[in-house]
Amino acid sequence: MSTIYLIDHYANNLNSPIHRASALSKIIGAALAIGTSILTDSVIALMVDFLIILMMILLARLSPFRMLKWAIYPAFFASIFAVSQLPSSFIRPLATMLKAINSALIMLFIASTTPYPELFSILGGISQTIGNVAFLTYRFFFLFIDQASKRFTAMKSRGGLAGGWKKRIINMANFMGLIFVISFETSENVYSALKIRGYDGKIVCNRKIDIRLSWNDLLPFAFASCFLLVMVFSLLFKELVPA
Amino acid sequence: MHIHVPDGVLPVWLWSLGYLLLAFFLFISLRKVRGDEKRGIYAAAMSAAMLVAMSIPLGVPYHMNLTVLAGIILGPWWALISDFVTNFVLATFGHGGITIVGLNTIVTWIESLIGLYIFKMLGRAFKQKSWRFAVAAGVSTFIALALSALLVIGIVAASGVNPSEEVHENESITIFASITLPIALIGAVVEAIVTSLIVTYMRKIGTTIIKG
Asked: Residue A137 and residue B48: Cβ atoms within 8 Å?
């Protein structure tokens, strides 16, 4: 099952105090965690942030192993960057890797505890057109994954992956082409359906970032305060938390 | 190719510049696409396809992009919006830092633009040939991805990949380039073949999504 599929499932179907908290408090916490990554190169500060994020993940009833597994994929790409920093010391590449894992984990945490339409409402704030494209992308993604998985099973069961490698490559390319065509046909059908309902380039999405705070927001704000403390401490006492 | 750099590694001036450029070009693109809502639906479909492609690990630090295909199908302005949405969603699961979304969108958009214009140019040059779409799609994808790999290396060089005083900066950027370029070029060849086959298939079945 794809990462986005599971993230969407976690955001919509899990129940924890963090899931019930407003998107605003979680975004503030994430911004402060990312702020620490931007402002400090201290491995100790980044390690503390890592532990705080792990605690948040546990409290949100998410699997820390699965989150770490997903975070390793972006960290794998960042490893090229880290390797190129090796000539100077081992500390800087370590800090780079920690920054990659922390950023990935905090973003995964936000996405796994906040439904995507709420996150897309941020884009809707920039422009309605962009918000619409984001919202439809989210809708199409699940349709395409579903279509692709059905067609792939059909192709496999009819011997599409048997035979020589040349035949396999051609069959795979035809499969991808077919998925593209189906994707665009689906989008045309959606467009026709929307047009009948009076679509003029605007989809009214009622999911907005909720700025009303409740008791559930205490927990994300407590974590946000921890990130703020780590950031301030690492900046004020550089000699105690060296890079 | 886009920059798989976490938050906090590139200097603030660089990623802020990325966001400034993005804001400027998005402003223009939103004016240009006004009234063309059908392409907007295509843009969403293309973003979803790019998301599927970009989230498939291939075992090496490379993944398919399909940004050139996005440029060919959507045109320059919708491609920018589609690239932005894709990079934003990717950043929500840690694939590239959230502060790098601006730079990444600009880099992937440049890929879409280069690919689109080379595709058009080659399509015109080989007007009478039946294989023109396959060749034009493959060649344009390869050139666009190779150039964007150089652009990414240029951006990292501009950032001062390793601000450490004891190491000469060139040494770090040489290591970065020597790891990145071979992977990017092999990936560009694979993606060029795949894009070419997809375009050929689309033309074969007579879809009008790709015009030319």
From this structure: yes
What is this structure's pTM?
A: 0.82
Does the distance separating the beta carbons of A86 and B175 come in below 8 Å? yes
Mention every residue, 6+ apart, whose C-beta is less than 8 A from residue A96.
A78, A81, A82, A85, B6, B9
Listed residue (A100, A113, A119) closest to A49, CA to CA: A100
Cα-trace Rg, chain A:
22
* Distance from C-alpha of B24 to C-alpha of A126, rounded to nearest angstrom: 13
Chain B: nearest CA to A147, how far in angstroms? 12
- A and B: number of Cβ contacts within 8 A: 230
Structure tokens at A95: 């800090």
Binary contact (A81, B156; C-beta < 8 A):
yes
ipTM of the complex: 0.85
What is the second-level CATH architecture of the domain B12-204? Orthogonal Bundle (1.10)
Task: Give the pLDDT of residue A54.
Answer: 93
For chain B, the structural domain boundaries read 12-204
Q: Which residues of A touch B28 (CB under 8 A)?
A: none
Is residue A227 predicted with pLDDT exceeding 60? yes
For A22-49, what is each residue's pLDDT tens digit?
888 888 888 888 888 888 888 888 999 9
* A174 CA: distance to closest CA in chain B (Å): 6
Q: Which residues of chain B have pLDDT under 50?
A: 163-167
Q: B134 and chain A: CB distance < 8 Å anywhere?
A: no
B194 contact A CB<8A: yes
Contacts of A71 in chain B (CB under 8 A): 94
Structure confidence at residue B212 (pLDDT): 54
Whole-angstrom CA distances from A154 to A147, A175, A207, B13, B97 are: 11, 11, 37, 51, 38
Asked whether the beta carbons of residue A111 and residue B93 sit closer than 8 angstroms, the reply is yes
> Does residue B51 sit at the A interface (CB-CB below 8 Å)?
yes
Answer yes or no: do A103 and B38 touch at CB < 8 A. Answer: no
